[in-house]
Amino acid sequence: MTIPDPPEFEFNRAISPDSEEMGIALLRLLFPRIAEAEAKLKGEFVAVVDDRSSLRLDDRYLGRWRTGSLHGTAMSASLDALMAVQTILEPVLTGAGELPMSALYPILRAALESASLAIYLLEPASRDERLRRSYLVAVEDAKYHDTFQESLGNPNSRQKAVAQEEIRALIATRPSLGAPADFQFTVVSYSDTVIKAEAAITADPAMRPSARMALVAWWKLLSGLSHGKQWAFVEAMERSEAVVDIENQSAHIRMTSSVAVVALVTQRAMETLETALHLYGRRSRVTWAEVEDASEPPTVSYTMLQNENGAGDN
User: Helix (H, G, I), strand (E, B), or coil: what is residue 117?
Assistant: First the structure.
């Protein structure tokens, strides 16, 4: 049966050589930024945290989640994903390799999500809000550890319950957080962290403002590509060699990825990680200390804390 007035659809969408050249140029600009982020995460920028900085003063209320274990892990995961993308793309840029159709998009999704999580933890100026978010993320992390154990046949894992008990004890040491029993362990969604990351990137004076697709839209597209959703492939991929059968409502189309699209989403993931690092830098130095930090009582130095508790608390 022939479809009356079939909806118009651009079955063929050719790759623009100009856009591809711009994508290659953008990637060449992004690779040094990835190297700079690696140097920060593996160097003194992250390792040295001032004793009276906001992050160090947060530690007294974080128990085993102190010393940046939550946001540090998230930033490292984001960087590792970006470095993997660079490793795959470098031979493509020299003409020695082929651009994967979709393999890069799940990796870029991981880079974007992890950096957004780090921003979610680091962005609030209020210590109580930073702590609240850390507690929520820690319990969410423990919940998934329980579900992992259950999948292995261990239904008695209590990581989430133990984490909640420890956190309620920590809340009891800070009256401004309210009664421990009243604390609500709400779910942290990736869509919320990505939306908050977009706001932080926009507010970061070190990032250049520009008109572009919203970060949450990129994240939704990357999620669709990661799960093999047809709509996402149609949206993101370039299309050619279409053979269309309107009567049977079918079409055979050759789909290929675009360097330009890969470059744009790599840029967004890079911007997200850089914003997380900027926030970390501000929170970890006394020169950027918040007003409330001055009222915090003296604390043991971080160096002494590390020596007393060992690396197992990181």
Answer: helix
Rounded to whole angstroms, the Cα distance separating 31 from 54 reads 31
Is pTM beyond 0.70? Reply is yes
Q: For residues 54 and 292, what is the distance between their CA atoms, to the nearest angstrom?
A: 9
Rounded to whole angstroms, how far apart are CA atoms 230 and 221? 11
- Please tell me the distance from the alpha carbon of residue 221 to that of residue 72, in angstroms, as a whole number: 26
Q: What are φ and ψ of residue 158, in 5° steps?
A: -125, 30
- Can you give the pLDDT at residue 302? 53
Q: Cα Rg for the chain, rounded, in angstroms? A: 23
Q: Are 57 and 301 in contact (CB under 8 A)?
A: no
At residue 290, what are phi and psi to the nearest 5 degrees?
-75, 160
Closest CA to 63 of 186, 140, 185, 163: 163
What pLDDT shows up at residue 231?
Answer: 87
Contact 133, 120 (CB under 8 A): yes
With beta carbons less than 8 A apart as the criterion, state whether 110 and 159 touch: no
Token code pair at residue 135: 């507690």
